[in-house]
Amino acid sequence: MAPKNKYPVILPTYNERKNLPIIVSLLNDSFTKNGFEYEIVIVDDSSPDNTAEVAKQLQKAFPGRIILKQRTGKLGLGTGRSRRDGA
């Protein structure tokens, strides 16, 4: 039997402490209900509201599902994608 596809979800965050548990719970419910494998990559730009700490708690609540990438400073979405010379 072939392994199932794993769907990655990337969540860029900045000051999303209150919203993060809600979106992670909704995503988990939707993927689980439909029998899909998934992982959630939370990218936090050093949120002053401690969003990263909430993400760490979510890693414990959803073991193996949450990946936290912490970045220094507020870098924004533009730095998260690759660029070609001259683009």
TrEMBL record:
Organism: Venustampulla echinocandica
The protein's enzyme class: transferase
Gene3D superfamilies assigned to the protein according to its UniProt record, in alphabetical order: Spore Coat Polysaccharide Biosynthesis Protein SpsA, Chain A
A GO molecular function held by the record: dolichyl-phosphate beta-D-mannosyltransferase activity
Domain Glycosyltransferase 2-like: from-to ranges: 9-82
PANTHER family per UniProt: DOLICHOL-PHOSPHATE MANNOSYLTRANSFERASE SUBUNIT 1 (PTHR43398)
EC number assigned by the record: 2.4.1.83
Pfam family, one: Glycos_transf_2
GO BP annotations listed: dolichol-linked oligosaccharide biosynthetic process; GPI anchor biosynthetic process; protein O-linked glycosylation via mannose
Keywords linked to the UniProt accession: Glycosyltransferase, Transferase
GO cellular component: endoplasmic reticulum membrane
Entry's family note: Belongs to the glycosyltransferase 2 family.
Protein name (database record): dolichyl-phosphate beta-D-mannosyltransferase
Keyword Glycosyltransferase applies: yes
Organism placement in taxonomy: Eukaryota, Fungi, Dikarya, Ascomycota, Pezizomycotina
